[in-house]
Amino acid sequence: MLEVKNLTFQVQENGVERSIVENISFDVADGEMLVITGPNGGGKSTLAKVLMGIEKASAGQIILDGEDISNYDINHRADAGIGYAFQQPPRFKGMTVMKLLSLSAGKELKREECCKLLSTVGLCANEYIEREVDGTLSGGEMKRLEIATVLAKSHKLCIFDEPEAGIDLWSFSMLIEQFEKIHKEKKESLVLISHQERIIQMADRIMVIEDGKIASIGATDEILPQLLGKTADSYSCLTCR
């Protein structure tokens, strides 16, 4: 279980402190899928980076299965059981897909294991396993590969930052299938940042963040109708596929 207590992240702008995330508290139960949504620039991606340890919180606590990980760096949080998928997956010229999957797993994977992971996300193993993780891969290919790196290791909690961004419809469908499978198995908790209605509909609960604060949080059947009732001008949050 993830517990977040009074989490705040501040930055200095022209000598003045500004809160990007302010006094946020929530929890994610074992096996639960929480989707975080809200207007662009509201602090969603910053929150994800603070949870993973990419950014250091200015205040507050992050507790995972009773263990206070607030002062852990990104490596120690990964060891504690948090997996993270970037909105824009990084590329590594000179590194093969097989090497990246092995690094993600924390051990040297056999070719068959890498092939299975690639097949799981809809990539033909023989075509990709020796390819470099560089600019020759499309956005959809990178997104699927990013998911494979998360699947390469068991986690207590997986965080996906706008997994639908920049991918084609085929990749998006594969993405939905993977999330449905992970959620059905209930082996890992999921936190997804998304604007996509299809992904939001899958959630157990929805949390809406505006201006760095929680605007609302609750069961999907309670919060989703409120989001759909907002006009595009006042709340350009949801998109459909």
TrEMBL record:
Residues of the ABC transporter domain: 2-236
Keyword entries, A-Z: ATP-binding, Nucleotide-binding
Superkingdom per UniProt: Bacteria
Alphabetical list of SUPFAM superfamilies matching this protein: P-loop containing nucleoside triphosphate hydrolases
Keyword NADP: no
Molecular function terms from GO: ATP binding; ATP hydrolysis activity
Xref: Pfam families: ABC_tran
Name of this chain's protein: ATP-binding cassette domain-containing protein
Taxonomic source organism: Dorea formicigenerans
Taxonomic lineage from the root: Bacteria, Bacillati, Bacillota, Clostridia, Lachnospirales
Gene symbol of the encoding locus: opuBA
